[in-house]
TrEMBL record:
This is Flavin reductase family protein. Belongs to the flavoredoxin family. Residues 22-174 form the Flavin reductase like domain. SUPFAM superfamilies: FMN-binding split barrel (SSF50475).
Length: 298
């Protein structure tokens, strides 16, 4: 058996062992607002429920291991003492992952992830419309666990209002665990889908993804693509060039045939096949091959 003194290894290694062995962990998609009213939303897997009376949720935005800086979420809850914790199901997991990209201060992750902000009833931060359960919370206490990179900050939240999508309820009004289809976090790129098992979500780029807001309307408005597809398409650093698209089409007879059909939906379904195979670059090349034909969906 491998035996480790936590002080003998790097923080990054220790974090890997902790996250790889303590799980699956539920995900808090925390929506906050800064003192000037700018929205922020970000996921945290150091999260759970700790009390029913009073209803208490706790999540922990840790100090970054690489440079000991703190996240916008922590800054915001310190300033406003309010947060909305939105639960994460499979339908939005790719968009949630995209929202974890460390965009610059002032960039709205709602816009980048393509998720919809909805006004809360009691607190100022927005709820996430697509989340099946949303908890409006007042922050009772923030407990700093250390001052070095990797140190957590326990945000103790009291739930003041709950919003539940009726589509996830059973005939008795209780939450149906199959319908809610929650996802949780493990180590590395691994997630767990509560009613199916393990799957991978590649970590967002170290550089910035273009975001869902940069995806052309004919793609965003197409019934072929769901929120997860848009999250994957938005997590690329740059789109293929015209030359790259042209070379791809010339070398791919199947794509040529689909493009010659003059049917935008067939083209999008072909791109969807590539997405299902985790070949995002080829999916983009298919979609950008004949934008004039796609314009029918604008």
């Amino acid at each position: 058996m491998l035996t480790i003194d936590p002080k003998s290894i790097s923080t990054a290694q220790l974090q890997g062992y902790l996250q790889g062995s303590v799980g699956p962990r539920p995900i808090a998609f925390a929506s906050t607002m800064d003192a000037d009213g700018n929205a922020n939303v970000s996921p945290f897997s150091f999260f759970n429920v700790f009390s029913a009376n009073p209803p208490i949720l706790i999540f922990s935005p840790a100090r970054r291991v690489r440079d000991n800086t703190i996240k916008h979420t922590l800054i915001n809850v310190e300033a406003t003492k309010e947060v909305v914790i939105n639960v994460v199901n499979y339908d939005i997991v790719q968009q949630i992952s995209l929202a974890s990209t460390e965009y610059a201060d002032g960039v709205d992750e709602f816009v980048k992830s393509g998720l919809t902000p909805v006004a809360s009833d009691i607190v100022k931060p927005y709820r996430v419309k697509e989340s099946p359960v949303q908890f409006e919370c007042k922050v009772n206490q923030i407990i700093a666990l250390g001052s070095e990179g990797g140190a957590g900050n326990l945000v103790v939240c009291e739930v003041v209002k709950i919003h539940i999508d009726e589509a996830v309820l059973d005939s008795n009004g209780a939450i149906d665990q199959h319908k809610i289809d929650l996802v949780s976090r493990l180590g590395g790129n691994w997630y767990s889908r509560s009613n199916q098992g393990l799957f991978e979500v590649p970590k967002p780029l170290a550089t910035l993804g273009i975001g869902v807001d940069a995806i052309p309307d004919f793609i965003k408005q197409s019934p072929v693509f769901n929120g997860n597809d848009l999250g994957i398409l938005g997590n690329v650093e740059a789109l293929p060039t015209t030359e790259e698209v042209s070379i791809f089409v010339q070398q791919n007879f199947a794509v040529k045939a689909v493009l010659s059909s003059d049917d935008p939906e067939k083209v999008q379904l072909e791109a969807k096949k590539y997405l299902n195979e985790n070949d995002v670059d080829s999916a983009w090349k298919v979609l950008l091959a004949e934008p004039s034909k796609q314009s029918k969906n604008n």
